[in-house]
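Q: My collaborator sent me two sequences in one message, no labels, and asked for predicted structures for both. Can we handle them in order? The first one she listed is below.
A: Yes, handling them in the order given. First sequence, followed by its structure tokens:
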Amino acid sequence: MREGLTVRLIETILIYKLLQLSQEEIGKMFELNDLRQTRFFQDVFEEGKKQGKQEVFEEAKQEAKLEVIPHLLAFGFSIEQIAQALGLDEQLVRQAAQPKS
């Protein structure tokens, strides 16, 4: 799935860079198999994988912070203390403290 997104990203970049050509002309210039063999494609693909991993890591870190909030409240920490300790906005801490229905 990410490979498809990467291919679409590359196609979009090429389209913007080659505005004077039609999409069909660009497609003929760069057969998909040939495009995947280029150093440019490989570099963009690797960068996309790295960026995707970083985004997943950041999301997981944020989820972990949100999951620990009810436990910290149970130990008597205030919303303000939790927000400061976790580096989160107080409003976000308040939302995470609300019981899930």
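Q: And the one she listed second?
A: Here it is, processed independently of the first:
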Amino acid sequence: MAPQVHHIQISIPSELYNILKERAEELGQSEEASILQALQSWLDPKGIASVEKRLEMLIDRRIAALRSEFLGVTESKPSAVPPYRAVRALKVGDLVQVRESGSPYYLEKLTITRVGMIRAYVQTREGEHSFLKRDLRLIEAQPDIESV
């Protein structure tokens, strides 16, 4: 049994008809087919849901683009900040410099003898002294220039 076909005659403004005609030409179909396709997507609950999802996705993309443009951040731009060296815990035998209290300058190089949670103990000329870890700077081992 063939599906029943109904005929409807409607009047639309010329601006809307021009848009319909352009859209039908873009899709390579007749105006009637374009109208039927639009009605099916509008009346079908699944069609509306897919249109809503697509619209939501497009809005999210646009918001992300505007946000990155506003903040001046792009995902493809490499970071201008150099990477930080890995932080490691102080160990017995490490060579450190002690910062002079109340000064940004560091004093002599000393060897760590004991390590606590907050303090580290170093061997000085006068004996063993404790310093806060924040006042110590780890010295990386460098080859002796004199032996070369």
